[in-house]
Amino acid sequence: MRISYSALNTFKQCPKKYHYQEIEKRKAPKSKEALFGTAVHETLRYMFSRDPLFPTLEEVFARFRALLAESKMKEEHKERYGQAGEKMLKSFYLKNPPWNFNVIDLESRFEVALDDASTGRHHVLVGKIDRIDKPDEKTYEIIDYKTSSRLPSQGTVDNDLQLSLYQLGLQKRWPHVVPENIKLSLYFLRADEKLSTKREAGALQETEAHILSDLRTIEKKAADSNFPPVPSALCNWCGYRPICPAWRHLYEKEKAPLAGNISTEDLVREFILLKKEIAEREMRLKELSGRINEYLNANGLERLFGDSMIIARKIQERTSIDMERLREALEVVGVWDHVLSPDEKLLKKLLPTLPAELQEKIKEAVIFKKFSVLSLAKKPNVEDE
Question: Which of 93, 272, 304, 371 is the most buried (most CB within 10 A)?
């Protein structure tokens, strides 16, 4: 399989979008945000291209305006995005004069071969790095530009998969470069902030394993034709909405067929009313349950008798696990990986195989919760009893 970080990220966000984009190869119109990002990235490439001199700020502005004018962005949006882009580019240019940096590559393309020993499959990971600098004799800096308004935490950058993939790409291209000499940076243009991090050699091995796991998942879903939509806020920027099963009805309401002589509007309306009624009844039922429990406790009872039914109370227990305490106990004997996804049945099977001292530590991590459940049963005939 040949795949890019962008495609991997698309799959994680929405398998259906991945299916349309990467498997069916359907073209979708780009959002105004995507068109804006493309224009900004191309302008920054131009800014650092010495041909034969670095461009002035006015030349950078002119390049950006031309790119925006040529884009398919609607005219009513071009002025607003043009002003935002010029403000962003001016701030960046003044803070980062291009002649102050030793840029060794722009929009650097790479390919990384990944072999999956568990399946025997061969994959190729492809990508494009916005910029590679060489600040000093030993250090290489990978820089990726971001036009999003959100500035993430340092922890998010430290675990950013895209940067890990870019480092893999650089090291495959230049094998002599050691991980300790590679600096990874995300430059957030709206905030005019650069957040940097590094990756150890072991972390890159984990990245490869993570990617191969994702590729196996994608191949399995492809074999099963199982790419469900995942509606989220990101749908607002997706060009596939008119054909997506999670959104298509919104665009086809006028020609949508009836469901058994009932319009979809009526179906939705009745469903919402019933759900609201159920929620109100559940709230009332919860309130009544509280009152009944109070009465039973106050009078030392466990059952209440009505005309034809009995309300009986049973005490039940539920358990939850303190994962930090469990991790401390299981990592000592190297079995933590077996329960990374907490599974009570698996834990019960594993428990008897462990040393008695360790069993006690695990039991300390189990939290017992008691709660009462009210159930309905038919009232028996007292005379028959």
Answer: 93
Q: Pull the structure tokens for residue 120.
A: 């025997």
Distances (CA, A) of 370 to 259, 293, 316, 318, 347: 45, 14, 6, 6, 21
Q: To which H or E segment does residue 68 belong?
A: helix 57-70
Averaged pLDDT, 204-229: 90
Helix (H/G/I), strand (E/B), else coil: 167: helix
What integer pLDDT is reported at residue 269 of this predicted model?
A: 87
Q: How far apart are CA 153 and CA 35, in angstroms?
A: 26
The answer to pTM > 0.85 is: no
Distance CA 237, CA 30 (A): 8
CA atoms within 13 A on the CB side of 167: 33
Which ranges of 197-263 does DSSP label H, i.e. alpha helix? 201-224, 248-252
- Helices (H) then strands (E): counts for the chain: 13, 9
Q: Identify whether the C-beta of residue 111 lies closer than 8 Å to the C-beta of residue 165.
A: no
Contacts of 48 (CB under 8 A, 6+ apart): 54, 98, 101, 103, 106, 131
In 3D space, the residue among 139, 194, 182, 185 whose CA is nearest the CA of residue 162 turns out to be 185
Mean pLDDT of 41-61: 93
Residues 302, 307: Cα–Cα separation, whole Å: 17
Q: Are residues 26 and 2 in contact, defined by beta-carbon separation less than 8 angstroms?
A: no
Name the token pair of 147: 């036009």
Strands 121-133 and 103-116: antiparallel
**Residue pLDDT, tens place only, 85-138:** 999 999 999 999 999 999 999 999 988 899 999 889 999 999 999 999 999 999
Are 5 and 94 in contact by the 8 Å Cβ rule? The answer is no
Q: For residues 189 and 47, give the distance between their C-alpha atoms in angstroms, rounded to a whole number.
A: 14
Domain ranges in the chain are 31-100, 257-301, 302-385
